[in-house]
Design goal:
homodimer, 2 domains, elongated, DNA-binding, HTH-type_Tx_Regulator (chains A, B), HTH tetR-type domain-containing protein (chains A, B), Homeodomain-like_sf (chains A, B), DNA-binding (chains A, B), HTH_TetR (chains A, B)
DNA sequence: GTCTATACCAGGATAGAC
DNA sequence: GTCTATCCTGGTATAGAC
């Protein structure tokens, strides 16, 4: 890994726990193992490091949507049709995968915590945060459940309310198990309970 | 309002948007209309201001539980029995009240945003955050819905999963409509939709 | 591309006059 | 209880040697 990449890496770790303002350029340089002045050969300012992280995340989200078979504006309907025949256990497993990705993925977890911290000081960051973790997620799952209702897999009448009922508990548990001390296993168990309740409620 | 109270007031506003580290003692003093040095006649340090805010919130939460008829360790069962006969419209109104309280109450709204920002840098803050917005809320509502199932108002089988299904959308929408720019009316509308879907799903 | 040295400013906090 | 003046530390950033 290049020094530039290591700077981004360590900066993200620090930003996601102490926040942008709570992290000094010295902190980052120290974590990388260089002097703060050397860091300026790679980035012209602290802000530029932050912006690089946001750009990097956008790139990774793009890649992720392919790998995971997740949100992608063009392939939504096909995905919905594919998910039409999903079983309860498969839905539990998929939920756990998404949950663990947002919670623990080396990049995604720290990035989400960073945005959570920084959202209130900057309208632009707030918009990115809401787009990723709220609007896009709900929009995607609304299409998904709409299609599943149409196919007769579920019995709902309001695909959007259904999407919120599926996603909000995931979002809630993400925030609950964000702290380093809490046990992720408990989170997975609680998640499974919610998904099974969701299926029980909406099954035909 | 005394100068000391005004300091707490302005500090909370600043902490809840820029964070603790992002707010200087000079910023606070300026907002109050005094010099930063004068501030030290009221508080011995910046940290003491923060701690005063947390204590103040604890005091207000206590008062709130009486006014609102909300979480209170001793009166839970009585509350559950009282809520046994609640109608759908009453549940919508109650949800909106709680939502608006956590979102807009002059103290509670800013306090929640402050904890949201500061939770990752301090285990103790994280514990307070989770206790207030996750554990206590869910525990209280689990008792509530458990009693309502027992009384035959709702048809659920898992009171805890039900509590999460009721509360998680509220938590999700709180976070979604936290930004200053978004329209609270939209949030209330979305909230109502979720509560009505909740009732539709769990009604006998 | 890393280092040392340095400039410059802002932040937290104290002393002492009024 | 507010002010001015001051201290010290630490933060961002640049210059220049190696």
């Amino acid at each position: 890994m290049s020094t530039k990449e290591r700077i981004v890496e360590e900066a993200l770790t620090l930003f996601s726990s102490r926040g942008y303002q709570g992290t000094s350029v010295k902190n980052i340089a120290e974590a990388v193992g260089i002097k703060d002045s050397s860091l300026y050969k790679h980035f012209k300012s602290k802000k530029e490091i932050f912006e690089t992280i946001v750009e990097e995340m956008a790139r990774r989200m793009e890649a992720m949507s392919h790998t995971f078979g997740l949100p992608d504006d063009t392939s939504m309907e096909e995905a919905a049709i594919a998910y039409g025949g999903i079983t309860e256990n498969e839905l539990v497993e998929l939920s756990k995968k998404v949950f663990l990705f947002y919670l623990q993925d080396p990049f995604a977890g720290r990035f989400r915590r960073m945005l959570t911290i920084e959202q209130y000081r900057d309208q632009e960051i707030a918009a990115v945060y809401r787009k990723i973790y709220m609007e896009d997620s709900i929009r995607y799952q609304t299409v998904l459940f709409g299609e599943m209702i149409r196919q007769g897999v579920f019995s709902g009448t309001d695909a959007r309310a259904m999407a919120v009922n599926f996603y909000a508990p995931i979002f809630f548990l993400l925030n609950k198990y964000d702290g380093g001390d809490s046990d992720v296993e408990d989170g997975l168990e609680e998640l499974e309970r919610q998904v099974r309740e969701f299926v029980r409620i909406y099954q035909k």
